[in-house]
Amino acid sequence: MKIRNVQGVRRLLWPAVLLILAGTAAGCGYFRHLRLAQSLPVFTAAPPLREGVYMLGTAKADITPEVGAWLAGFRMNRASRGVHDPLEIRVLALADGTGKIYAFITADLLGFLYDPEVKRLRAHLHIPGLEIFVLSSHNHQGPDMIGIWGRGIVDVWGRRIGLPLTSGRDENYIDSVLRKMGTAVVEAVENLQPVSMISLGSVEIPDLCINKREPEIQDRELSLLQFGISAGGESRVGAVVANFGCHPETVASRNRLITSDFVGVVRDLMDAEGGGMSFFVNGALGAMVRPGGIYLRKGSFEKRDKFARAFVGYANQALLASAPVQLDAAITLKREVIKIPLENRRFRYAALFGIIPSRGTVFSGEVTTEVSVLRMGAVTIVMIPGEIAPELGLKIKGWGGPHTQVWSLANDEIGYILNPDKFHWDLYRYEAGKSVGPQAGSIIMESVARLLAETDLARHPRQAH
After folding, report:
1. Which residues have C-beta within 8 Å of that of residue 29, sequence separation ≥ 6?
2. Secondary structure in 3-state letters for 228-283
3. pTM for the whole thing?
4. Residue 444's beta-bridge partner residues?
5. Most buried residue, 9, 199, 238, 257, by most Cβ within 10 Å?
6. Mapped to the 3 state alphabet, what secondary structure does 1-30 carry?
7. pLDDT band at 457 (very low <50, low <70, confident <90, very high)
């Protein structure tokens, strides 16, 4: 009996040892959850709403991580060695006079996951009528919020394998970002002031960014929304939102200093010129839209600043060409939770070993995410949960009409969203490797088409008869 018991213990011991080794290999994978989690407070506010009156409030907060954070994008093993300029979140809260408040949070991050982060933030914001949206700039010089850019093995005997050994996610940092987001939303909501005007302007940018895969396919439109507010009997600029599709990659991949890339410089310059708070929202940047021309190779902070100044020059042209947006109706919002098959085996293995959050994909084989469409007067905003290819973004603009904006990396980062007909092209091998799978493009486009139709019917119910 004793021998049998010893053999039984040995049979149980080996699986336990393998489990420990797997957990150790995952490093900050599952074991990172053994930390003392920081609980989030419940965020409440008493917004000074006015019936029938559009209102605007803004706020911002510093989210710069500590030195040593794993930097997202480009490659693994890239720990930060210092801070060049701070990372921020900025909040634009917009009330439409019906009791609804729409809070848009822009973040100097590569991405912000729907599950668990966005769902968790929404669960802790107890403000009546509030809708939350988190929009990442896709910054490659900030902390890894996904997990795949921690410590890993890049090459073996000259062959690139890209095997992550530890998660790059710092759960304590993510907790602190969620807490700052909640606090900033409360501040923006409590600072709501009447909107005096909203204007929309756009301009083509022909020379700052390129599509490295298919140069002839690119959305070159820079679209700007400007909000004026009434304060103390005077009208002034309250906020400006710039929407343009381009990877923030003016700073070289070898850089180890935390920076917001060109996005922070653009905001600071626009803040100084306009007097309000400026926001950058990325557009159809997928497959592979990035700075071109003199900014394409060996990036530097000098090139970053030059790029930003040129960008703001175009933004000023768009503002000069802007026209008022008629606000004769409330904002219309439709959003849909969708499921996309996770066919990327690397992502499935990363979820299995705790490198990235599982999001339920280990058992379901699907990624759950969200698509949203918002209509405000003549303006249509389509929010996409990843890096959508420019040809799909242009198609969405055609569906939505002349004043349609595509906001990428909205409430999630599921990777590249490619034209299904081109997914298996050798040209898009890299992007396909950073995509959840070939069905993502068609499922998201079908969702967008449904939501556009639903918002049309919501605004014009007689069309349903």
Report:
1. 23, 166, 167, 353, 354, 355
2. EEEECCEEEEEEEEEEECCCCCCCCCCCCEECCCHHHHHHHHHHHHHCCEEEEEEC
3. 0.92
4. none
5. 238
6. CHHHHHHHHHHHHHHHHHHHHHHHHHCCCH
7. confident
How many residues are present in the chain?
465
Q: With contact defined as beta carbons under 8 Å apart, do 149 and 71 qualify?
A: yes
Q: What is the pLDDT of residues 188-244, one digit of tens each?
A: 999 999 999 999 999 999 999 999 999 999 999 999 999 999 987 788 999 999 999
Q: Are strands 82-83 and 101-107 parallel, antiparallel or unpaired?
A: unpaired
C-alpha 454 chain-centroid distance? 24
Average pLDDT rounded to a whole number, residues 176-194: 97
DSSP, res 325: P
Q: Domain locations in the chain? A: 33-464
Q: Which residue reads 């756009």 in tokens?
A: 202
H or E, element range at 138:
none
Inter-residue long-range contacts of 155-159, CB under 8 Å, 24+ positions, other chains counted: none
